[in-house]
Design brief:
The chain has 313 residues and is α/β, with parallel strands linked by helices. The protein has one domain: Aldolase class I (TIM Barrel, Alpha-Beta Barrel). Helices cover 48% and strands 10% of the residues. α7 runs parallel beside α9. The longest helix is centred in the C-terminal third of the chain and has 18 residues.
Length: 313
């Protein structure tokens, strides 16, 4: 299968008329627009609502080799009640873990949970395993209770032009992950160009991704505003042509509320209010939540709190 067929198969309407645009991102214009949108400010009375939304959009994440059941239990407690002294602070969208720790999260969060469980899979973070191993990884995560699966694409295959291999793997993972939602991680820091980011975004959406995600958080650069804008514009174009609405998850490097708010401004200006919901936009983060909690306290009390008042994720 050639690249054209790979990028057109799976859509309700063909992409052939738009193929010349797939590899033609104007990097200068993209970066200028991202920089301009980053300067947008929100009114003071809207800031608390934005901070509340960031919490509700966050996938609270721990993906370390030293993760333990105790650490995951504490993470789940924080996910439900990010600020134990302020019940007005909402729960996060999800916790994101390695597959073997999904049962711990499931037990801790209970059957009537509002916080979802996301599991990485497909030989995260490299993606360098045979497809049979990747599919077994996905099925195990879902069987253990994952509501969402965050897979990684095979960047080696993508960068060597084997788009059909990448596409077919996503299709198979989507089938294996059902009924869990599938987020497809592009690892944009390894893709090299905005052209590749756009091409990979379109390919992932054509293959059935429910979300496209920037990064594993394991390499630098991870999520940047221009990369997020590039992916959001691909989502916008697919929605305009096919009516299909795909979610977006920037992950890695978003540690402060100010940068998260800038991402929300880019999101709103590119896709509108319909995407200002955890069902269509997530932040993959660990340290972000504490900075947002500090900002919420400041908005409510007028006084900054020390980071020592909040648990370390």
């Amino acid at each position: 299968m050639d690249a054209t067929a790979t990028l057109t198969r799976g859509f309700e309407l063909p992409l052939e008329p738009r193929l010349p645009r797939i590899g033609a991102v104007d990097a200068v214009a993209l970066e200028a627009r991202a920089a301009d949108l980053a300067k947008r400010s929100i009114k003071r009375e809207s800031k608390l609502a934005a901070l509340d939304l960031i919490i509700r959009m966050t996938d609270l994440t721990t993906l370390e080799g030293a993760d333990t059941p105790g650490k995951v239990a504490a993470l789940c407690q924080k996910a439900v009640r990010p600020d134990p002294v302020d019940p007005g602070v909402p729960s996060v969208a999800a916790v994101c873990l390695y597959p073997n720790l999904v049962p711990v999260a499931r037990e801790r969060l209970g059957p009537d949970r509002t916080v979802r469980i996301a599991s990485v899979a497909t030989a995260f973070p490299s993606g360098q395993s045979p497809i049979e191993v990747k599919l077994a990884d996905v099925r195990a995560a879902v069987e253990m209770g994952a509501d969402e699966v965050d897979m990684v694409i095979d960047r080696g295959a993508f960068l060597s032009g084997r788009y059909a291999k990448v596409y077919d793997e996503i299709v198979k993972v989507k089938e294996a992950a059902a009924p869990a939602h599938l987020k497809v991680i592009l690892e944009t820091g390894e893709l090299g160009t905005y052209d590749n980011v756009r091409r990979a975004s379109l390919l992932a959406m054509a293959a059935g991704a429910d979300f496209i995600k920037t990064s594993t958080g394991k390499i630098s650069p991870a999520s940047t505003l221009p990369v997020t804008l590039c992916m959001l514009e691909a989502i916008r174009d697919v929605e305009a042509e096919t009516g299909r609405q795909v979610g977006m998850k920037p992950a890695g490097g978003i540690r402060h509320a100010k940068l998260a708010i800038q991402h929300l401004c880019v999101l709103h200006e590119t896709l509108g209010r319909d995407w200002l919901t955890p069902e269509r936009f997530r932040f993959g983060a660990s340290s972000l939540v504490n900075d947002v909690l500090m900002q919420i306290r400041k908005q409510k009390t007028g006084v900054y709190q020390s980071p020592d008042y909040f648990t370390v994720d």
